[in-house]
Specification:
Shape: globular
InterPro entries: L-rhamnose_isomerase, Xyl_isomerase-like_sf
Helix content: 40-55%
Bound molecules: alpha-D-psicofuranose, manganese (II) ion
Strand order of the largest sheet: 4-5-7-9-10-11
Number of helices: 15
Number of domains: 1
Organism: Aquimarina gracilis
Protein name: Sugar isomerase
Order of helices and strands: HHEHEHEEHEEHEEHEHEHEHHHHHH
CATH topology: TIM Barrel
Strand content: 5-15%
GO molecular function: isomerase activity
Radius of gyration: 22 Å
CATH superfamily: Divalent-metal-dependent TIM barrel enzymes
Keywords: Isomerase, Manganese, Metal-binding
Structural class: alpha/beta
Distance between the termini: 24 Å
Length: 426
């Protein structure tokens, strides 16, 4: 199913008057603070977030999977779904593929399809946390860290293969997330596991094309519950540094122990020029992969505040790869992704409102009350009219969720693809 742009334009007309009144009101408020609303709208309009190919079906948990119906059964259909989101939001102009779940059968065909929706191929993800049916070696006891050379070698070759697939699609980066670790004390020699991982990553890095980046993800626990080889940002940074200039750390919001100061990690990595990419999601307890902004929107804002500061002040850090990494089994996945994109744009817009000069002055004056006021004033501003306007100017939907429902997208997908789920993914 392809959404007809004219239908979006028609539906926009019904709410445009109300939207323009709200836009006018915030533009006036901002003018009093010497902020140009159009400037912010321009930045929102070009902001693009990659959709993970594994988030388009109703996500599974180890306890069960409840189909939504009309889920994509092929990579082509996954691209169609991202096309729907991108047409509605103008923010989903990229896809992050997981290999081997999404190996293309027809490279030209898939590239053409993606291009028809203005979708590019962002980071490709390797998978050494599941055994493949035809594999010689098992990852049960680790992949890049495996004590057996043959296991490590297979995992290295897989990553090189993923790079080769990405090259054919126009991707420019690979994300490596490892499940490697131990469930019980004594199971692994920590130093050997780390060294093996470092050696393996360095070998993969040797195969990285000159214009590619490698992103190394960390995670404190799960699926291993005693120790994880790449457990935190420090380990990921150390490994990236041991590989070279084009290796970076990737921050996944759900990959932190409760109450970790993620915004400080972001700032530290930006300062070192080593923040490569971002996986957005939200969580209450652990790697919950919930909708972005659904649990801790203020934290998301504080993170964006550091990102905006970094984008303006840290030329040593390259442009970031923005990706969503969320998937669960209760909502319509497309509605969920639309909500995530909305939360990301809202936090970004709020962060753009922070008066960096005033904040610096207040910091220099050690006026912590004013520092807090500046941040919370930005956070408490309803920036949604700016976000909506950024979409209207791009001929996308003022209200993507309402438009998605008004156009009966899910019903049509079920009609086209059937009720049963065949989607692959987490
Ligand atoms: C597993 O924790 C995970 O969510 C990682 O965050 C990866 O990025 C993703 O799966 C895909 O491999
Ligand atoms: Mn992730
Ligand atoms: Mn995760």
């Amino acid at each position: 199913m392809k959404i007809d742009k004219n239908k979006i334009i028609d539906l926009n007309k019904d709410i445009e008057t109300k939207h323009l009144i709200q836009l006018d009101s915030i533009a006036n408020q901002l003018q009093h603070k010497d902020i140009d609303g159009q400037d912010i709208i321009k930045k929102l309009k070009i902001f693009q977030v990659a959709i993970p190919s594994w988030a388009l079906g109703a996500g599974g948990t180890r306890f069960g999977r409840f189909s939504f119906g009309g889920e994509p059964a092929s990579l082509e259909q996954k691209i169609d779904d991202i096309g729907i989101i991108n047409t509605l939001t103008n923010t989903a102009g990229a896809v992050s593929l997981h290999i081997p779940w999404d190996i293309p059968k027809d490279y030209n065909g898939i590239k053409e399809k993606a291009a028809s929706y203005n979708i590019v191929f962002d980071a490709v993800n390797s998978n050494t946390f599941q055994d493949q049916p035809d594999a010689n070696e098992s990852y049960k006891f680790g992949s890049l860290s495996n004590i057996n050379k043959a296991g490590r070698e297979q995992a290295i070759q897989h990553n090189i293969e993923v790079i080769n697939i990405g090259k054919k699609l126009g991707s420019k980066s690979i994300t490596v997330w490892l499940a490697d670790g131990a469930n019980f004390p004594g199971q692994n020699n920590f130093q050997k596991a780390l060294k093996n991982t470092q050696d393996s990553l360095q070998q993969i890095y040797q195969s990285l094309p000159n214009d590619w980046k490698m992103f190394i993800e960390y995670k404190p626990y799960e699926p291993n519950f005693y120790s994880t080889v790449i457990q935190d940002w420090g380990t990921a940074l150390m490994l990236a540094e041991s590989c070279g200039d084009r290796a970076y750390t990737l921050v996944d919001l759900g990959h932190h122990l409760p109450n970790t100061n993620i915004e400080q990690i972001v700032a530290t990595l930006l300062y070192k020029g080593k923040l490569g990419g971002f996986h957005f999601n939200d969580s209450k307890y652990g790697d919950d992969d919930l909708t972005v902004g659904s649990i801790k929107p203020y934290t998301l804002f504080l993170i964006f505040n550091e990102l905006v500061y970094g984008m303006e002040n840290n030329p040593q850090n390259p442009d970031l790869a923005w990706m969503i990494d969320a998937s669960h089994n209760a909502k319509d996945p497309l509605e969920d992704l639309i909500q995530s994109l909305e939360a990301i744009l809202i936090a970004y817009a709020q962060a753009l409102l922070v008066d960096q000069n005033k904040l610096r002055e207040a910091q220099e004056a050690q006026d912590i009350v004013t520092c807090q006021e500046i941040l919370q004033d930005a956070y408490r501003t309803d920036v949604r009219p700016l976000v909506r306007e950024s979409r209207l100017q791009a001929y996308a939907a003022i209200d993507p969720l309402a438009t998605y429902r008004a156009l009966n997208v899910r019903k049509n997908l079920i009609k086209e693809r059937g009720k049963k789920s065949t989607a692959t993914g987490l």
